[in-house]
Amino acid sequence: MEIITKSARMEVLTQKLRAEQKAIGFVPTMGALHEGHLSMVREARRMADVVIVSIFVDPGKFRSEKEFDQYPRDLARDADMLSPIGVEYIFAPSANEMYPPGFSSFIDVEGLSDRMEGVSRPGYFRSVATALILLFNIVRPKFVFMGQRDAQQAVIIKKMVRDLHLPIEIVVMPIVREEDGLACSSKNVYLSPEERTAAGVLYRALKKGEELFNSGERSAGRIIKVIRKEIEAQPLAQLDYLAITDAEHLDPLDDLTNQNALVTVAATFGKTRLIDDILLCEEKMKSKTGRLKLG
Ligand code: AMP
Question: Are residues 82 and 204 in the same domain?
Answer without folding.
Answer: no
